[in-house]
Amino acid sequence: MVSFAAVAKHYPGGQQALKDVTFSLEPGEMVFMTGRSGAGKSTLLKLIPAIERPTAGSVIVNGQNVGALKRSAVPYLRRNIGLVFQDQKLLYDRSVYDNVMLPLSFSAHPAKEAARRARAALDKVGLLARERANPIQLSGGEQQRVAIARAVVNRPGLLVADEPTANLDAESAARILDIFVAFHQVGVTVVIATHDEGLVSRYGKRVLRLDAGRLA
Amino acid sequence: MRAWLRHHREALWAGLRRLSYLNAIVVGIALALPTGGYAVLESLRPAGARLALEPRISLFLEPELRRADAEALGKRLSADPRVETVRFVPREDALKEMSAIQGLSEVIAALGRNPLPDAFVVTTRQDIAAELGKLPGVAYVQADAVWARRLAAAAAVVELGLSLLTLLLGAALVAVTFNTIRLQILTRRDEIEVSKLLGATDAFIGRPFYYLGFLQGIVGGVVALALVAVALALLNREVATLAESYGSNFRVGFLPTLEALGALLGAGVLGWMGARLSVRRHLRAIEPS
Ligand SMILES: Nc1ncnc2c1ncn2[C@@H]1O[C@H](COP(=O)(O)OP(=O)(O)OP(=O)(O)O)[C@@H](O)[C@H]1O
Ligand SMILES: [Mg+2]
């Protein structure tokens, strides 16, 4: 599903964010990516949907070499990956429902089917009742769930989430992680970056530990 | 195919919603100038052409000239290969014609005698007015051809000016649209960035902006045509009074339908071009990280 081989990432002008990273994920697997702040978690996750490109090594996603992907092919790669960002990136000029509809507006779903999928996604994260609200009116945990609904609305085979439980109390964090576990149980491959090792240990899943850009 | 149509329909609506009517009106005012100019020029063209096609030269003879000498001159004119037609206007006929004009008959009666000379009205293939003026017995030459040529030259200058103006304002239309779209892209930066992250293609994101540019041009064109129609209606009220005093029913006509549609389409295409330049430049610059 995802495989990294001797991947290095050097930001222009910055230091080496990733060094010689090699690992692979089996389809349907759920892994946690941990490490201190600045260890390179976000950088690693950004290589998967080609938001950043590796400076060395190869990143293979669904059989495609993402590092060498043409600019014009990137959107189609991203439609098969559900992304939850560290800073959520919700749009505050529209309702929760319209936020979740956004990824469906540029793929080829008929309007009825799109509406059905958006409601189903909101239902899965327990926010169907808030579909008319503006995201700004929601709590941090609820906004995070909107972001998850938007990530899964296209029914991707791979979910990539960067710090989905940051700034949440333990109960809300557990609720968010339970949603990811539910997707994992129906066969979705899930990668979650977090610095909360205590939370991770409770799930008994594979953990990839990053330390200063290297896998420990 | 249905999805493609739906995407275009949605982009068209999005473009319409983003349309700034103030901008479209500015575009319209700019376009009204050359459009109105062309309407006036096109209306004058047939009148000018008629004048240019029949350059008439009037030869007024010396008052003391005897009829026999006048007839000899007439023969000489007819024999010239450059002369097309010759018409003799005796002074008695000229007087009768003048007396028919209201107000002049009293003046002529007061003079007591016929002050008018005999005359020839000649049409020629070339401009030989000066040469004809030197013929013996000819007192004065008046050549309409000179006026026709001056008119044609003036029309050519005006036409050139209009072409340059059109070019300039066309470029301005492209620039205004370029800037409109630039601002639109900047204010929608977040939406564009998120859309790119979630898998929207550049074509999808750019489409509403292309429609916006096209529509701004079209609406600007409609405003321009409306302004021209109103201006011509006002102008024609004055033209009518003036033309009637010359016994003419001349009016400045509106642009022919085909040309009006062409102007609309042209404005739309220029708006689209401005949008395209702007999208290419500003959309690519937004790269999520
Ligand atoms: N766009 C960038 N340009 C230059 N350097 C960057 C950029 N993004 C990240 N870095 C650097 O790369 C290193 C890894 O950053 P990254 O964001 O991947 O860490 P992280 O593990 O996600 O940290 P956190 O837990 O704080 O989110 C850091 O030293 C950071 O300063
Ligand atoms: Mg990070």
Question: TL;DR of this structure?
Answer:
Chain A is of the alpha/beta class and 216 residues long.
Written description of the protein model:
The complex is a heterodimer of chains A (216) and B (289). Chain A is α/β, with parallel strands linked by helices. Chain A has 2 domains: 1-80 and 156-216, Rossmann fold (3-Layer(aba) Sandwich); 91-155, no CATH class. In chain A, the strands form 2 sheets. Chain A has a 6-stranded mixed beta sheet, with helices on both faces. Chain A has a 4-stranded antiparallel beta sheet with strand order 2-1-4-5, with helices on one face. Chain A starts with a strand and ends with a strand. Chain A is built from 7 helices and 10 strands. In chain A, helix 3 runs parallel beside helix 5 (140-152) and helix 4 (111-124) crosses helix 5 (140-152). Chain B is α+β, with helices and mostly antiparallel strands and 289 residues long. Chain B folds into 2 domains: 2-51 and 149-282, no CATH class; 56-144, Alpha-Beta Plaits (2-Layer Sandwich), CATH 3.30.70.3040. Chain B is built from 10 helices and 4 strands. Chain B has helices at 2-18, 21-53, 67-79, 91-100, 104-111, 129-133, 144-187, 189-197, 202-245, 257-282; strands at residues 56-61, 83-89, 119-124, 138-143. Chain B has a 4-stranded antiparallel beta sheet with strand order 2-3-1-4. In chain B, helix 4 crosses helix 5, helix 7 (144-187) runs parallel beside helix 10 (257-282) and helix 9 (202-245) runs antiparallel to helix 10 (257-282). The model of chain B has no long low-confidence stretch (mean pLDDT 85). Chains A and B meet through helix 2 and helix 3 of A and helix 1 and helix 8 of B. Bound molecules: adenosine-5'-triphosphate and magnesium ion. Magnesium ion binds at residues 41-42, 86, 162-163 of chain A. Adenosine-5'-triphosphate (ATP) binds at residues 11, 14-15, 17, 35, 37-43, 86, 195 of chain A.
